[in-house]
# Entry
Amino acid sequence: MSEIESFFKSAFSVDNVIFGFDEGELNILLIQRGAAPYKGKWALPGDLVYPNEDLDAAAERVLEQLTGLRGVYLEQVKTFGSVNRHPLGRVITVAYFSLVKVGKHIINPASFAQSARWHKLSEVKDLAFDHNEILDSCLKRLKRKVRTAPLGFELLPPKFTLSELQQLYDSVLDLPKKLDKRNFRKKILSMGFLVESDELQEGVAHRPAKLYSFDRVKYEQFLNEGYVFDL
Amino acid sequence: MSEIESFFKSAFSVDNVIFGFDEGELNILLIQRGAAPYKGKWALPGDLVYPNEDLDAAAERVLEQLTGLRGVYLEQVKTFGSVNRHPLGRVITVAYFSLVKVGKHIINPASFAQSARWHKLSEVKDLAFDHNEILDSCLKRLKRKVRTAPLGFELLPPKFTLSELQQLYDSVLDLPKKLDKRNFRKKILSMGFLVESDELQEGVAHRPAKLYSFDRVKYEQFLNEGYVFDL
DNA sequence: CGCATATGGTGTAAATTTTACAATAAGTCT
DNA sequence: AGACTTATTGTAAAATTTACACCATATGCG
# Structure
C-alpha cells in the first residue's frame, strides 16, 4: 500500500455521552456491544460518521436512533485519536455529550447493540475502547459548563422544584460540601430567569414545593444586561 | 465505490494556531499556501496526520517543523468536520493552539509553504479554508484559559516585569477597561508563585522595573493548598 | 549637573459578594 | 391530634473586589 493510500485507510466516528438525571443522581446511557471487538462490553453509543454527514449531525443521529429524541443539548468535547485506540484500524473519534430528560423516551438498542440502558454514573466501571477516558473528559466538561451556563435545566422536566434543582447541582458538581440551601435559592432566583408557577409538587408525603420553570427569554435579557450565569 | 470503501475515503489533519506576544500585542504565526487549493492565501499551519502518529504528536510536529521548538504549551480545542470544509475531499481537522515565546526561534516555511511569518492578530483577515472560524474558537479558548490557568507565562520570556505581564493580560483579554495596576499586582503576587529576581529591566529610558519569574514548583504548592488560579 | 520625562511602585476605604447559620410553615400519614 | 418530613425565609460577619493618586527612580538631554 502506498503512503498516500494509507492516509485514507482511516475512519472517524462520534461517541456520545448521554447524561440524564434520575433518582437524584447523574446517569448515562450505555449500549452493550453486540459484535467484536469488545463484544458484550458496555460502551458509549457511537457510530462511524457517514461520508456526507457533518460531525454534529452524526452525534445527533446516534442520539436519535437510540432515544428518538431530537433538538436536545449537544456539545462537542474532545477528539481521541491515539494510533491504537481501536483494535481494527485507525479510527479517531469525536466525543460529544448530550443532556436529556430521562423518562421522555423509549430506548431502542436494536440499531446499535444487544441492549442499552441507563447506568448510574457511580456504577459505571470498565467500558470498551478508551471510553472511560472519554467519559472522564465529558464529565469534567459538564462539571465546568453547568456552573457557567444554564444547562442544568436540560436535565430536569419543564417544571421543577428548587430542591430538585439544587439536588441536581449537588450531584453533578459532587463537591465536598453540599450547597447551602438558602444561599442557593437566593442566588438562582436573583438572576431572574426562573419563573414561579402556581402549581405545586404532587404526590409527596410532606409540604409540597412550588414548581418553577426556566424562562429562556428572560435568560437572554439577563445576558444582554451584561450578567453571566455563575454558580 | 462501495459504501464501506467510501467510509475510508477521508483523511484527518491538525491545524495549529500558534500564539506569540510581541510589541504589546498578540500575534499568530501563519503560512502562505504554496499550492492549490487557496494557493497564495494565508492559512493556519497544519498537516495531515500520519497513519502511525497520534493527534497531539502531529500538532507538535507541525510546530516543530515550522519553528524548531519543542515542549511548548499545546492544547486541543475543537474538531472541524463540515462535509465541504475542504474542496478536495472529506478532511476533518483537529484544531490546537500553542503558546510560544517570540524571538526564540527561526521560522522555516520551506517544508510547508511559500512563506511564513508572524501576523498581528488585529491584522489577520481572510484566511484559507474555514481557518477564520478555527482561529475564533482558539482565541475564545485562550481568553478563557488564560484567566484560569497560568498560561500567560508561556508567552513571555523567563524573566519579565509585572507591567509586561499586565500588558499581556490586557491584550489577550481585550476588556473594555484595562486591569487596574495596583489591584493586578496585588492579586498576582498574593498567589505566591511569582518570584522576584535581583535583576532589573535594561535599556529603558525610565526607572527600570524588577524582573520576576514564574515558579512552577510554587505554583504546584499553591494548587495543593486548594487554591485555584483566577484572574 | 540638573531638570524634564517616563514608568515603577505602593495602601486604604467603600462597596459588593460570599458565607454561615435556625426557626417557622405547610403539607402527609397514622 | 400529633408526628413527621420537607419548604420557605433573613441577617450579620467575613472575605473579596473595586476605585483611586502620589512619590520614587531610572534615563536623556541641554
